[in-house]
Specification:
about 270 residues; alpha+beta; 4-stranded antiparallel sheet; 14 strands; globular
């Protein structure tokens, strides 16, 4: 994997060199930002000691944790709404986590970084966190949900229909129906026994031209970032270097940090 080609598109054969990327945009809300570059997840895990069991010439990635207890599979499909990412224990699949192709890699990394950390994940009340960020809380019986302020993302705590119900976190991201049909962007499912990934973080994500799904036009806020492509590449390399060092994992969001008080132009995609 060549770091100079860090800005490749997930769903296309063309690899863009860093010097061909002229600008980065900060886009929000993050759940509509598109998948981004999967190496934000995979290269970090490889730097953390995960082993690569991918078959040469086959378009998938199979990684295994250093203790051989966990596996991650990335299998790109033509349909970006289908499951691309799967994470589960190597032997007994007592839990699993699945993410669609348009799931931002920063959201997937929030989950895999927690798995990769030796420290237990902090206790987080996701409902309180979501409500504090403007999400609407819903409840039907024992099932609970939170709806994003723009009504494009739904975080749910739901159970299976089995005799012994299995509870899981479910995320569904879509834009308003067109001709009576939902226009799905991505979804994910994380079993109860697995740590939940943060979704309501308001920090914008960095994307290049063509990385955001076309269906998000008119629903995605965007403005040019003060972070240059070279700075973003260096952040990626610093994240990998941090993974090789003992201690807590590096930041998964790679969110921009513009100077305070700078005026920004905002447009709608």
């Amino acid at each position: 994997m060549s770091h100079e080609r860090f800005y490749s598109r997930v769903n296309g054969p063309t690899l863009h060199r860093v010097n061909a990327v002229r600008r980065l945009d900060e886009v929000s809300p993050r759940h509509l930002a598109g998948g981004g570059d999967p190496r934000h997840v995979t290269e970090y895990l490889l730097a953390s000691g995960w082993s690569n069991h991918s078959v040469v010439g086959f378009p998938h990635v199979l990684l295994e944790s250093p203790d051989h207890h966990l596996r991650l599979t990335l299998e790109p499909e033509f349909d970006t709404h289908s499951v691309w990412w799967r994470i589960h224990p190597a032997e007994n699949h007592e839990w699993s986590a699945q993410f669609g192709g348009n799931t931002p890699v920063e959201v997937v990394a929030g989950f895999t970084d927690a798995l990769n950390s030796a420290a237990p994940p902090p206790e987080t009340d996701l409902w309180h966190l979501a409500a504090g960020r403007g999400w609407s809380l819903l409840r039907t019986g024992r099932e609970r949900a939170a709806l994003s302020p723009d009504e494009t993302a739904l975080l749910s705590w739901v159970s299976s229909l089995a005799e012994t119900p299995v509870w899981r976190w479910a995320v569904q991201v879509s834009v308003p129906p067109s001709e009576g049909r939902h226009r799905w962007i991505w979804n994910s499912s994380i079993d109860e026994a697995a740590p939940a990934a943060a979704l309501a973080d308001p920090t914008p994500l960095l994307r290049t031209k063509g990385q955001t799904p076309g269906l998000t036009f008119g629903f995605l806020g965007s403005h040019r970032s003060v972070v240059t492509p070279e700075q973003h590449r260096l952040r990626h390399l610093q994240r990998l270097e941090a993974a090789r060092q003992p201690g807590p994992p590096g930041p998964s969001s790679a969110g921009p940090a513009p100077p305070p008080g700078e005026a920004r132009h905002r447009r709608r995609r």
